[in-house]
Input
Amino acid sequence: MRVFSVEPDGGFTEYEQLPFETDHAEADLEQWLEANPGGILEDGPLLIIGRQVPTDLGKAIDLLGVDREGNVVVVELKRDRTPRDVVAQALEYAAFAAKLDAAALEGVLGEYHPDEPRGLAEQHREYFDQSEAVAFNKDQRIVIIGQQVMPEIRQTALFLGAKGIPVTCVEFTFFQAAAGGRLLSQEIVVGAEHARSQATARPTRVTRSKFLESCDDNGRAVFTRLLDLADRKGMSISWGYKGFTIGVDIGGARELICYAYPPASRFGQVLYPEYGKRVPEEVVEQLWEKTEQTGLFRSTGKALVCYIDRAFTDDELDALVAWCESVEQATREHVVPGALAGQTVSS
Output
């Protein structure tokens, strides 16, 4: 991006984009933000109550503030740390800030403005032009600021925001003109709207019709037969974000029989057998052997898998349905209602 100032005569003077650290220390940016907190948050101004605030772990928060609702805001400069370190440090500071009650916040403010007679509540009301006081530190927010906010930080910030931990990421760019003029631009690259968009975009569970539409003809033939069997036999079908599982409900707990994935999954279009966790070990061994005998499953060492990468014959489809039904029958026969998951039960 090229930036120009417009001179009185209408001419342009170009500003050169420079690395901030060329002529400045991180403390300079910290001081500028401290003096100009209006652009730190995307949804309003910020009342700064502390700078280099010591934590209980012997570290210091760059800037500590309070927003309009009284939430505590941790402002952390990225510096030259790795993305993992930046996020970990910010979360550590937020965890510390979460423990600060109103008296502790008053103490931080007192250290920051030792000659200021007004308390936090009064300063907050005047700063935000409010008629009533708010309850402080109901929640915490994190702001990460740097010349470049790496993709790893953005991704983690979006995840935390979608989980209810507000994180704002701000990038700034420093410009300087030959005549000495300076500009600082800043852009919020992750904020509340970004987090809400990610949360809205979360995948929904697949339905039977959509799952079968996502399969090719080979998979559609196999899975339709298995789903029809489950319906006829009263087995339970649970739909996930990509595939489904078939199981039986015994004594208020569900025992799995198999799970399936469509072509677009990372597993490919496959069917995995599963033997209920309450099925006795010797029965599981027998079922494993019967599964291999169908000739439709391959061993991966720890598991068996049926790759549906071709058209199955009618006899093969019948054999697969018979296999699923035999696992269902064995599960109902050998699982005792009320047994704990993983507990071996002998019949």
In short: Confidence is low (pLDDT under 50) at residues 339-347.
